[in-house]
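Late entry, written up from scratch paper. The run itself happened at the end of the previous shift, but nothing got recorded in the book at the time, so transcribing now.
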Amino acid sequence: MRNYIKLKIILILLFFLFSSHSATSKETTKNILYVGGSGEGNFTSISDALMEAKDGYTIFVYKGIYKENIIISKRIRLVGEEKETTVIDGRKEGNVIHVTANGVSIERFTIRSSSYVLEEKEPEDKQGAKVPSEGITKVNKTTILERNLTTAGILVEANHVNISDCIIEDCQLSIVLRKAENCSVENCKINAKKLPKTIGLGIYGSKAVRILNCNISFCSIGLDAMWIDFLEISRNNLFSNLYAGISLQISSNCTVHHNTIYGSKTGAGVRGECKNVLFYDNNFIGNEISAVDYCNATWDNGVVGNYWDDYNGTDTNGDGIGDEPYVIPGLMIARDYHPLMKKVNLTSPISITISYPEEGSTVFGVIKVKGYATCKEGIKEVSVRIDNGSWIRANGTSEWSVEIDVSKYDQGKHTLEVRAISNDNKFASTKIDLWIKKKSTPSPSLIICILAILFITLLLRKKKR
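Output as recorded:
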């Protein structure tokens, strides 16, 4: 009888062990940590949440001012509640955010007050143009790629990193991508507030970078790129940057299109053995010098060039293209052979609708993402991706669909992005959040627990006999 009671006690304990295992498993699969706010168990600092997080986690930060310097060394998604009111303040004590892990996403923050280094003498490049401090634009590859940077709002030294919907202000180097691959900066507002020796966006020793839909203003140089292969700069406003809106040096396969660059001493400068650099459909307005070219870049795509507010040519046939080429000064005389008579309209005419899945829905296994895309000029391509992954081309254009196996992604919250490209090479994108749920598989400890219960049940039956 006593053995029977012991067996019953063991059975009850195993039952509670199984229950607690299930509860724990359920709790940890959320993969979301919260900072700020009033929730029970929320972290008070982003750094504390980062220590607790694991690869694939999302850290959601409620609005507030967080005075800290952050190192992101795990593959996480860092999301602010609202970019205007969720502030990370570096207290002028180094980089505000330093990303060293691949696959990181940073969204909806105001990032401000990195440290600031002021050199006594302002350096000049080979053509005599003044450039900012920290040696960041000196033609010294070791200095640029290896030295310790401490003045960035966001310093990225990793691959597959996405920065979106952020405000970066009061930083000497607002965003720096160094030795980074397959990264993007989208829908960000950068303002150095006229501080001297500043760079809005610096890209060095990197590959496959996209800069989209950003406003960059009141810096010494708006966008500075060196030793980069495959760069797209599109649909940005670069205004009131003191020395240059865009500076490209020693880079290849760079495409600059559908941007407005105004109010700088030099709108765009191309220097130092650049190869396959293309500018088209850009507005150059109110610059002392619209552009300089020291490496024979291409300034039209064979059909359209750029709008230059100091172009004095005529348009005899009224096709919107100037009859005479626009001359860009430099060591070699470059020309825009298709200068535009009117400003480029940068408003995207593309409309994208995701009909499935819906915003915030939970999905698992293989899902069929579908929707619609419309544009006056017609749609030639629709692509879909999850988080900052590779684009997957959809079937169809105006009505499109694509199957995606979401089981290969971590369980938790993810971003689904759809991009459409029109027949005149304009593009737009839209995003929704969704939750990915994995089909539950029993863990080894759970299997052992179940087997133990079955074994004890058999013993009890045997005892009764």
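The CA atoms of residues 99 and 156 lie 5 Å apart.
(Scratch paper discarded after transcription.)
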